Amino acid sequence: MRALVLGGRSPVALEIVRNLGRHGHEVHVAESVAVNPAGWSRHASGSIRIRSPRFHFRAFLLDLAAAVERHGIDLLIPTCEETFFVARGAEWLRQRCPGLRVVSGPFDDIAALHDKHRAMGILGRLGVPVPETELIRGPEELDALLRRDRSRPLVLKRRFSRFGVQVRLLPPGARRVQPEIEFDRDEHHARIAPDLAGDWVAQEHVDGRLHCAYAYAHEGRLLACVQYADARAASFKVLTSFRPVHDPRFQEAIERTVAGLRFSGHISLDAIIGEDRIAVIECNPRVTSGIHCLPDADLGALFTTGNPADASAAPAPPVPPVPVPAQIRMMNLLRRGGHDKDVRDVVHAADDRMPSLAYALLLGGFALSALRHRIPLAAATTRDIEWNGQELPAL
């Protein structure tokens, strides 16, 4: 099988490239930034530069089609937020490239789940426990919210966001949104009031521990799933250690979501686990870091389950029954001056060293972009691929 993996900047893309390569597949990696770490892997057959899906949507699809045709690609695997652009253009790509398998759910389905307000309504109707969630359209509605009498804190976040960027806690009685009460103190760089334009979500704050889950499903059937957490990470901070955990209430919520939506593709949920309550607070219909806990799964077989081009396709073999911990060692060293000993590093591998060098160059480029555009570093890493609910051009 020949696969084209997108989002080569991400550790999850590197994980997939190495996994497919070890299982004997030919893997190419496409990226819209200059440095493509997954494309530097010894398991990658080639690194391809494509245009930004956010800023050049049609050109992005043309670049993908050209790569598919040139390399005889069978399987197209988006990993990051380019997933939404690929899903929007999936039918066009299939018509242009007959027989191409695109690993993504339908655009309308995943777009609804990416919307932090709509997702809570969808999950709630399926019987999944979710916190009270309210849509806030701009500064005037936010000001009205702040004038209310509130006995419990609220979590305020962008309707379309990622990595915990611009997530803020509003304590009871708070009358202003200030950077000082932001969760991710080390992620923001300004000491001024935030830009409150656009849509926000105000969500009931739930006490407990953050658990995340990554799953892969086909037509409502859960084929792979792992719950993971990092007890040392602050709430709403992007995780850099991934330790398998299990809560049966969370597992039920995942299964109910997948079955209720008859979902196909990658899906990830975040939940707050309390002593007497669980609340699913977000849904990300794309690959997330839990895939690092399944290094021995046959991802090629998993992602081609139910391939309409192969009526005899059998269900994917089961993933390892006990997921294993993983970490991004360099990020742990930078954040807390140490790392998890005897836990696999998802970036550096003794037999595949070049991606580590690529990440050093990539982070330097993102740091310059953050300064140029006056945005947090985390936001700079997705600036050219993120989808924030905007209308996409007709094809």
Polypeptide structure, described:
The chain has helices spanning 11-22, 57-71, 82-88, 90-96, 107-114, 116-125, 138-147, 248-261, 299-303, 329-336, 354-373, 377-380; strands spanning 2-6, 26-31, 44-49, 75-77, 101-102, 133-137, 154-158, 168-170, 199-204, 209-218, 221-229, 241-245, 265-273, 278-284, 326-327, 344-345. Strands 14-13-10-11-12-15-16 form a 7-stranded mixed β-sheet. It has a 5-stranded parallel β-sheet with strand order 3-2-1-4-5, sandwiched between helices. With 395 residues, it is α/β, with parallel strands linked by helices. Helix content is 30%, strand content 22%. Helix 3 (82-88) packs antiparallel against helix 5. The chain has 3 domains: 1-104 and 353-395, Rossmann fold; 110-114 and 208-345, 2-Layer Sandwich (D-amino Acid Aminotransferase, Chain A, domain 1); 132-204, Dna Ligase, domain 1 (2-Layer Sandwich), CATH 3.30.1490. Strand 10 (209-218) and strand 11 (221-229) form a beta hairpin. Residues 179-193 and 308-314 have low confidence and may be disordered. The protein starts with a strand and ends in a 15-residue tail after the last helix. It is globular, with a radius of gyration of 20 Å. It contains 12 helices and 16 strands.
In short:
The chain is an alpha/beta fold and 395 residues long. It folds into three domains: 1-104 and 353-395, Rossmann fold (3-Layer(aba) Sandwich), CATH 3.40.50; 110-114 and 208-345, D-amino Acid Aminotransferase, Chain A, domain 1; 132-204, Dna Ligase, domain 1, CATH 3.30.1490.
